[in-house]
Amino acid sequence: MSRPSKMKQAIKTALVDYLGLTEDETLLVITDENYREIGLEIYETSREICSEAIFLEMPARKFNGEEPPDAVAEIMKSVDAVISPTSKSLTHTKSKREASKLGVRIATMPGITKDTLIRCLSADPKKILEVTDLVYNKLKGVNNVRVKTDKGTDITLPVRRRRILASTGILKNIGESGNLPSGEVFVAPTEDETNGTVIFDGSIGGIGLLQQPVKVEIVSGYIKKISGGKEAELFKAMLKGVNNEKAFAVAEFGMGTNYKAELTGDILEDEKILGTIHIAFGNNLTMGGKIKVASHVDGLVMNPDVYFDKEKVMSQGKLLIK
Predict the structure, then answer these.
(1) Residues 101 and 170 reside in one and the same domain
(2) What pLDDT tens digit does each residue of the chain (322 aa) get?
């Protein structure tokens, strides 16, 4: 018998070890025209594992957080598990939230590449879980997070009494959902209270790797000014294109905890990099926030200093938590 390819083995790991798919379950694979090849590979592999697999291709969405067609949303509610290699993320959609409430397990894979699948799913889940737990437990009870970098980032995000979420990619329990692969701890900062400047120097969701840093000035929880080069203009245009001022609202603070993740330009992997933080703008209902809008855009900060209240927990990207 021939040995399975690295790609097929990675997909089996995703479906069985992370999503917990069993032979008596039904899986829905949602993709679009840009991710058809990966979607079909997942579908073909899943047919060897579960009793029923459904392949569904929809038109690519324009924004992360934009709803899928109504028919897709209905099918999502009728299966045991969903996996979605798509151009834009379904993580922050009403469709995902409603299916999860009904007990459906959902793994979102926006912008996934074969390299990311193979590399990140070769990581030791126990190591990711260990680091994730360290950060999660340290962040509990914290009032304010402050991030600083040599490039000029200096921002304070209030997180008191907000729900802290830990994402390892292991989605075996009823109604669990998240990115796959994963490895992050994140929280929705208190609305209207984040202030400061953040310099994105890694990547931005929907734009990719940054050739020039993007400076974002934030007052009372909203972006007031974006400056930099071509990518700064693209970022500004992307948010304006949502036609809703809430697209400019601070939605999330997160820290990567996946030691296998590398900077690729794909925010799905980039925001999981150990030694980075990310700040997102737009929808945060899924993480317990109050901002409702059809977009969610993350930006990555490399090698930051991070403070939980007055305690320094990261120094230039090195985690100090023991």
Answers:
(1) no
(2) 445 689 999 999 999 999 999 999 999 999 999 999 999 999 999 999 999 999 999 999 998 889 999 999 999 999 999 999 999 999 999 999 999 999 999 999 999 999 999 999 888 888 999 999 999 999 999 999 999 999 999 999 999 999 999 999 899 999 999 999 999 999 999 999 999 999 999 999 999 999 999 999 999 999 999 999 999 999 999 999 999 999 999 999 999 999 999 999 999 999 999 999 999 999 999 999 999 999 999 999 999 999 999 999 999 999 999 8
Domain boundary among 86, 120, 154: 120
d(CA 41, CA 43): 5
Rounded distance between C-alpha atoms, residue 39 and residue 31, angstroms: 6
Residue that finishes a domain, picked among 64, 94, 120: 120
Instruction: Please check whether residue 182 is in contact with residue 168, taking contact to mean a CB–CB distance below 8 angstroms.
Output: yes
Same domain, 164 and 308: yes
Beta strands in 228-265 (DSSP E): 250-256
Q: Same domain for 150 and 228?
A: yes
Residues 133 and 15 in one domain: no
Count of structural domains within the chain: 2
Domain boundaries, position 109: 6-120
Task: Report the C-alpha dihedral over residues 218, 296, 15, 123, rounded to 10 degrees.
Answer: -20
